[in-house]
Amino acid sequence: SSQTGGVPNPGLPPAGGGGTGTAVITWNGPSTNADSTTLADLAGYRLYQSTTSGSYTSGPVATVTAPASGGGAATATINNLAPGTYYFVVRAYDTSGNESVYSNEASKTIP
Fold first, then answer.
1. Other Cβ atoms closer than 10 A to 104
2. Which site among 37, 61, 70, 103 is 20 to 30 Å from 26 CA-CA?
């Protein structure tokens, strides 16, 4: 089953201090499958990063295990970001390895 419900919306804080940038991405997980049935096999989330909007060709930069109760809020922290603009999307995946479509894109500029 692939998930689209509860499309993750990463919320990004201001840039971290010092010369090394950090992005903290927080989102709400899905509660239903793409076909609107109850999501009972959510395994976790994969976070993808790019320096080009809409282009996610590399593997995930972080994997977050879903809480035992399913959906809910989840967070990933990406450290050691050089100055520049970064784009992030999240995909939920189930216990069979099926991934959802990409979430809405969020961006973070590291000065």
1. 12
2. 37
Spatial contact of 3 and 30, defined as CB atoms under 8 Å apart: yes
Rounded Cα gap, residues 18 and 28, in angstroms: 29
How much of the chain is in helix, strand and coil states, percent to nearest 5?
A: 0, 50, 50
DSSP state of 50: E
Q: Digits of tens for pLDDT over the chain (111 positions)?
A: 344 444 443 444 433 344 489 999 998 888 888 888 888 888 999 999 999 999 999 999 999 998 776 678 889 999 999 999 999 999 999 899 989 999 999 999 999
Determine the Cα–Cα distance for residues 65 and 50; give it in Å rounded to an integer. Answer: 22
Give the contacts of 14 (CB within 8 A, at least 6 positions apart): none
Of 51, 48, 60, 61, the closest CA to residue 84 belongs to 51
